[in-house]
Amino acid sequence: MKKKIVILGGGESGVGTAILAKKEGYKIWLSDKGKIKEKYKNVLEHLEIDWEEEKHTESQIFDADVVMKSPGIPDTVPMIKALRAKGIPVISEIEFAAQYTSAVIVGITGSNGKTTTTKLTHHILKDGGLQVGMAGNVGDSFAKQVAETNAGYYVLELSSFQLDGIEKFRPHIAVLTNITPDHLDRYEYKFENYIEAKFRITKNQTKDDYFIYDADDEVITNWLKTNKIEAQLLPFSLERKLENGAYLENDTIIIKTENTELTMATSDLTLQGKHNTKNAMAAATVAKLLKIRKNTIRESMESFQGVEHRLEKVLKINNVQYINDSKATNVNATYYALESMEGQTVWILGGVDKGNVYDELLPLVNEKVKAIICLGVDNTKIMNSFGNCVETLIETQSMSEAVKMAYRLSEKGDTVLLSPACASFDLFENYEDRGRQFKEAVRNL
């Protein structure tokens, strides 16, 4: 008897899972409550996979041996609860795909910095000559890559939602960049639930595996005091010298693992800012564990081009620098952005609030921000938080309007920063769409 897999969601992870499940001989039913994009329908048709859109046929779904749900579907949805009550396993694409590869897996999670760290790690490993795939929240789906390529290594960017759906998934190297309140709407507004989700990345690791983490992050270090991890711990820190792991001394990164040392000047990194020094430490530690040559690691760090929509310099107009940081979808990411600003800043922010608390931004706003432009359907919370900090606070409803306003308010030597601190779904498709609209509006000035 063929096992039956039901796939909920017909996006990148759903269709990737379908491709792999087909290869592994499953009977497949794919169901999406919304509309499925044409490019994905074409793949499903080509592979002769049964699918439906804009509905969920329960008789088909409850007949499953296993269910893969896309990360966008919360665990609290009645159907997911009903499936679990019936004892039908509900897993993530990451869990499903990992069973079908013997590749070495590097899993990277954290509230911020995970995309940069993932791309940087992939960049170094590729430069080091490894057959390496990059998946998770970036690139083609992990399942699709497992089905179609035979990479010996995978670097996976993992969100808490993807980690919620794992049972046996075990990365050889796990990286936790930091933990700050985010997505609390999905975790009953309990920070501890979100923390537990992030630490799932290490739950199946053994003493032969590695756990790389930010030793300056109190949330992480406090959790480690009361919970035992099997993996070998490799911390990184900007604040103190470490016996094992990565630290900073006189603007030089020093990485110590397995009795060997790698050093690198921070001035050689293409990515500037404290948070990027940490991302570089994490990525270089991974590369060192995987025996990439020291020179290759240094050269890769110098040639890395950064991530679109993350502190991306767009244009200078009348000596005003426009910066696209649309990927900053939470307060902590925006904190890093404001911290790295020099000179006066016109700040564009707003969108869908995920339970944000703006207090930690107040000192930076007082110091660096001359005007705030709100870009969201409901800006009340932002107005209340920053109304007393800046002289100019304006509401806008479209990107072109926000950018034109910023152009008027900025003077020579200023920076215009899009760093929303919020999700984008009220006015845009996603943060990429928001970032592209910003860049287009700037180019049209």
From TrEMBL:
- Domain Mur ligase C-terminal per the UniProt entry, residue ranges: 309-422
Q: In which pathway does it act?
A: Cell wall biogenesis; peptidoglycan biosynthesis
Instruction: Note whether Cytoplasm occurs among the keywords.
Output: yes
- What GO terms are given for molecular function? ATP binding; UDP-N-acetylmuramoylalanine-D-glutamate ligase activity
Q: Which InterPro entries does the record match to this protein?
A: Mur-like_cat_sf, Mur_ligase_C, Mur_ligase_C_dom_sf, Mur_ligase_cen, MurD
Kindly state which keywords UniProt assigns to this record, in alphabetical order. ATP-binding, Cell cycle, Cell division, Cell shape, Cell wall biogenesis/degradation, Cytoplasm, Ligase, Nucleotide-binding, Peptidoglycan synthesis
Per its record, the protein catalyses: UDP-N-acetyl-alpha-D-muramoyl-L-alanine + D-glutamate + ATP = UDP-N-acetyl-alpha-D-muramoyl-L-alanyl-D-glutamate + ADP + phosphate + H(+)
> Per its database record, what is this protein's job?
Cell wall formation. Catalyzes the addition of glutamate to the nucleotide precursor UDP-N-acetylmuramoyl-L-alanine (UMA).
**Database matches in HAMAP family:** MurD
Family in the record: Belongs to the MurCDEF family.
What is this protein called in UniProt?
UDP-N-acetylmuramoylalanine--D-glutamate ligase
Q: What is the lineage of its organism?
A: Bacteria, Pseudomonadati, Bacteroidota, Flavobacteriia, Flavobacteriales
- What gene is it encoded by? murD
